[in-house]
TrEMBL record:
This is Protein kinase domain-containing protein. It comes from Nematostella vectensis. Its main location: membrane. It is found in: Cell membrane; Membrane. PROSITE patterns: PROTEIN_KINASE_DOM. GO terms for molecular function: ATP binding; protein tyrosine kinase activity. Keywords: ATP-binding, Cell membrane, Developmental protein, Glycoprotein, Kinase, Membrane, Nucleotide-binding, Phosphoprotein, Receptor, Signal, Transferase, Transmembrane, Transmembrane helix, Tyrosine-protein kinase. GO terms for cellular component: plasma membrane. It is a single-pass membrane protein; Single-pass type I membrane protein. The keyword Signal applies.
Length: 293
């Protein structure tokens, strides 16, 4: 199948790539174009080493099959830039969805007339649990495959009109195909978002499954804060100092005590003491169904 990019604003910009909306046109006449997301590497002229790592990583991504993980539809390795063609979601990224559902006292902004009504569309407690449960399920699957996301946040998830949430922004890593451990140099680690990272990653550039678990705790805070930026109003140095001193994000308004407790567990300064995604998925699933674990 052939595809081309549609003139559109960038959906997401990461340390190594940009994400655009696009159309994928089928070879057969009469079939409709398919809306897709196109992830483009930032290098204008990639080296052969980068191209080889990109192709190897893309092959790994084609093997992933989970209802809460974004599907890879195609790869472009001829010419430049290098691209991944990914499944599109009709409601966009989770962060914007949360902001549109949020109360005015959480997000101060001008709301367009076409936006979601904050009174009739405020998320219920079950809605928030459902979102958290689906992300935990997707991350449990990725962790079982040895994949480290490294940029887990609500902006790197997509949501559909029927409330299906999927882990997105996969691929195009510093270290090539998926592995259970990364160690990045100073320049590489400076590209990643400090507000979602634990101290061992910020200081030493170490990415492993414990990194994603810390980030998942921050993501839970985002879900219950309706997309608010963590440590809002602070610069990166202030955030690092706060985390180093053991201070944590406050409990969001109306966040259940059990969910805030899970966030705190994810933010343990001792990496191996953080809960596994399997446990988080089971625990949140039990809260969702009302069955204790």
């Amino acid at each position: 199948m052939y595809f081309w990019c549609v003139t559109c604003s960038i959906s997401f910009a990461g340390p190594l790539s940009r994400l655009f909306l696009g159309n994928m046109a089928p070879l057969s006449r009469g079939e409709q174009d398919v809306m897709v997301m196109v992830k483009v590497r930032k290098e204008s002229v990639p080296s052969q080493e980068i191209k080889d790592a990109f192709e190897e990583e893309a092959l790994v991504l084609t093997t992933y099959d989970h209802p809460n993980v974004q599907s890879l539809l195609g790869v472009c390795v001829i010419g430049r830039p290098l691209c991944l063609v990914l499944e599109y979601s009709d409601r966009g990224d989770l962060n914007q969805f949360l902001r549109d559902c949020g109360c005015s006292h959480y997000i101060i902004r001008e709301r367009p007339s076409s936006a979601i009504d904050p009174d009739s569309n405020k998320l219920s407690h079950l809605d928030q649990l459902c979102i958290a449960k689906q992300i935990a399920a997707g991350m449990e699957y990725l962790a079982s495959r040895g994949y480290i996301h490294k940029q887990l946040c609500t902006k790197s998830c997509i949501i559909s009109k029927n409330m299906i949430v999927k882990i997105a922004n996969l691929g195009v890593s510093d270290a090539g195909p998926n592995t259970s451990y990364y160690h990045l140099n100073t320049i590489q680690k400076s590209k990643y978002p400090v507000r979602w990272l634990p101290l061992e990653t910020i200081h030493n550039g170490i990415f492993d499954d414990n990194t994603d678990i810390w980030s998942y705790g921050i993501m839970l805070w985002e879900v219950y804060s309706y997309g608010m930026t963590p440590y809002y109003g602070m610069n990166n140095e202030e955030v690092i100092s706060l985390v180093r001193d053991g201070d944590i994000l406050p409990k969001p308004k109306e966040c259940p005590r059990e969910m805030y407790s899970l966030m705190q567990d994810c933010w343990s300064l001792v990496p191996h003491e953080r809960p596994r995604f399997r446990y988080l998925h089971q625990k949140i699933g039990a809260l969702f169904t009302g069955v204790a674990v």
